[in-house]
Structure formats: C-alpha cells, structure tokens
Amino acid sequence: GLSTPPLSPRRQFVHTAAFSTSILLQNQRLDAGSLSFDREHTPGRHHGIASRGFASCCSADKPKGAHHTQLHSATGMLTFRSSDQLGVVSAIAKIIASRGGNLISLDLHIDHMDQANPEFFCRTTFSYDPATWQPATMHADFGQLCTLFKSKHMSVYVPGISPQKRIGILVSKQDHCLMDILYRWEAGQLDCRIDFVVSNHEQPAGSHVRELLAKLCVPFIYLPTSPDDQPTETQLRRQEQQLLEIAQNTDMLVLARYMQVMSAPFLRAYNRDIINIHHGLLPSFKGANPYRQAFDAGVKLIGATSHFVTEELDEGPIIEQLVDRVSHRDQLYEFAAKSQNLEKQCLFNALSYYLDNRLLRYGMDRRVMVLN
Questions:
Q1: Residues designated catalytic
Q2: What is the mean pLDDT of residues 266-286?
C-alpha cells in the first residue's frame, strides 16, 4: 500500500544498468559502455551445457525478498579456470542469485594460445548474507561448477570469514621493502597474518626494524649463513633446513630484498608460492651496488619487477612491473631513492594482488594475469 518514491537520475541509471547486466549475463554477453563482448558460436565448443546439472542450486525462481540493491554484510571473491565453454558466466551468476547474493563485478579473459582448446579465466566478486549462505554450502555450490565444467582451478575467499593467509618475510640488509609492508599491514591494507621476519643479517636491539616488529608482535629471527657472509654449500643447506622448519605452517613467503639465492632443493621441499622483488636494472647491472652502475651508465629509465620464484634465477612468472624516468639532473641518492620507491610499490602491488585472489597463471604456468 506504500508508493515507491521516484528515483533520481543517478539511481535510475544504476537500476537500468544492473537490470541490463543481468539480462546480458544470461545471454552470455558482457556490455561495458559502448564496448561489448559477445560469446560467439565457435565450432567445436560445448553448447547446451548450461542447462544441465543446476536444478539443486540454480532454480529459475527468484529468491524470496531478493533485490539487486540489497545490502549485505559479506563480500566473496571467486576465481575460476576451465576450458572455454558456453554457460560458465551464466552458471556463476545463477549460483550467486540463488542464494540471494548480488554480483558486484566480473572480470574474465579467454586465452587463445591453444586455438583448439581456449581457456576461460574469471574473477567474480559478490555480496551476500553469511547467515544464510554458510562457507561449507558455498564451497559445495561452487564445487558443482568444477564438476560440470571440469575446472582446472577454483577458489573462494571471503575477507573476515575465510582463514587469512599466513606469510613469512625474508630480508637482508636493505629494509625499505620490509618497512613498507609492515606499515601497510599495520594500516590494514594487507589481509594476511605475518608469522615472522627472517634475516641473514642481524638487526641490533633498539633499531627501527626491531622496534616496529616488537610493536606489531612479529618475531624477528636472525638466521646467518656464515660469520663472514661467504657461506659454503653445507652452510647454505643447513640454513635452508632451518628456514623450512620455521616456515612449515606458512602459506607463502615474501622476499623483501632478500639477497640469498633459494636452492632448487629448498623450493621443491617448501612447494608453496614465493614472491620476490628486484630492481628493474637486471640483467644489465648485476652484483654490488647496481644503482651506482646504472647511474654511471646514464640510464634514462629505471624500474622494479615482482615475480614468483622458480628454480631459474629471477626468471619466474612476472606479477608486476613499474618504471620511472631519471635524467642527468638526478644525483645518485635521488636515483637510488626513486628506484627504492618503485621496489616498495611494486612489491606491495604484487602482494596485495596475491592476497586479493587476483592472480591466475596461464601459458603453461609461465605467465600471470591480474584480474580485477
């Protein structure tokens, strides 16, 4: 019996856009402004598959009381990878809608490197009521996607509900990347647990690093390789074995300007993700004081690269890269400061992408895509 007040032009636009998006998703078309992407009929593709297997969780009936502007208290993130098939986007949207959730965003990519078998990648964010969609039920619902579409990867993460990733940080003498991570973590910009900081160089009591770690209740562990920093093979293996024991409960490691090379046996034994950062001056300027080498050579562009660690030194899949210009007007200290700022931002970007479930590997796992 109550009349609905007229919508403002902006609200009318939002309602129209949301309605149009739901229709387009069901028709397997994504529309963004004047740009559109149509899932065209391709010979050899699996068609009609969307109509099978969703009776239990994808009823065509609209959930009672559901509305696309309904506010929810939880936001979930789904990442999904499978062969490219008709109906995947529609199935994801139907599962979310069947539980009274709202689709917030969906970013997808079709990789055609293997033209006979293109791959589908997507990251979906959605809001929902955690009181009515429990984690076990959610994983079971999305698990049907894995079965139906023979998924190669599926993960669901809900900040504040799913367990946080546990990370360990490794650092050497230079602490600018470490300090930046700690400050951002303290400010709530990184959704994770930091279990420890390990260094192959001692930090004296009362140093700014030790004081900040003590404030944040993060253990500092000094793990030297040798007294003269010129370790033998035996000393390196002993240190790596100690590190394996320390890091056994972590989900990943971050090398925040850690200058010790990880051996192949260590990487195989750890068998989890490791993210590294280095200046973008490689491979031209290796060894001691690369900033001075690049400065003396008169380079015009500097940068930083963050990547996954593999057995091939500094050749793992690239996650993030940043660049900046330098010139003859920059002194050496300005040159180094610009480079270190790039390293801090680049590592933070890569780590936040990882923690936000934005990264998917492709191209035989040699490349990394960052989905929104």
A1: 314
A2: 84
